[in-house]
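Hi V.,

You were right to ask for the full record rather than a summary. Here it is.
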Amino acid sequence: MTVTSNGSTSGGASETENKPLGLRERSRRETLNRIRKAAVELLAEKGYEQITTREVAQRAEVGEATLFRYVSSKHELLLLVIGDKMDHDIEAIIEADARSAVEAGDRGAHNYLSRVHAVYRARADFYLQDPENVTSYLQYAFVAGSQLGAQNGAQGDRIIDLVASIIAEGQEAGALFAAVDARVVAQNCQGIYVHEVLRRSVRGFTFESLGERVRTRLDAQLLPLVLAGR
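Predicted structure:
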């Protein structure tokens, strides 16, 4: 919203937002976009463990020193590519749950548990788009002091907050057992998802089995919360 010369307000972007980008800023964004595109391509072709920052710089047609002005380490290439995609995915999950809550109308226990399962079906679908690189993203998130860890922690907290709010709604509706901490339940649900992603290669599970493995463990966590007759 902007203020006109007569003091009235009008909608639309501000003059600052409409101001054309300067040459330096356009160049910076174009370079970053080339780096991002190169990282996306190489991660798809070879996977995180096999690529090098030199390869990304060459594909982006920039010097390696230039690349390091935009990302300080190879880990940050994962943040740049997978982290951004995950942020968008989480936004979509939150929006989908808000629609589901409005459309359902049902305040029975099944509705609340179905919403939690829908969150993690979407998480599994995201994983299946790029399982090796998503796994690497989650693994490196546990490196002390890493920027990946900070971003992934914030992403995990958003999912935990969402699931905790669903459980709390069910408790307030009298459909779910109230004498438990909804946030602890949500943390356990998130822990189930992360654990199943990280243990896949160790146990030799298929990528495609993630959704069912998570669902089975979520049921063991959630079904005991259902009150009789609800």
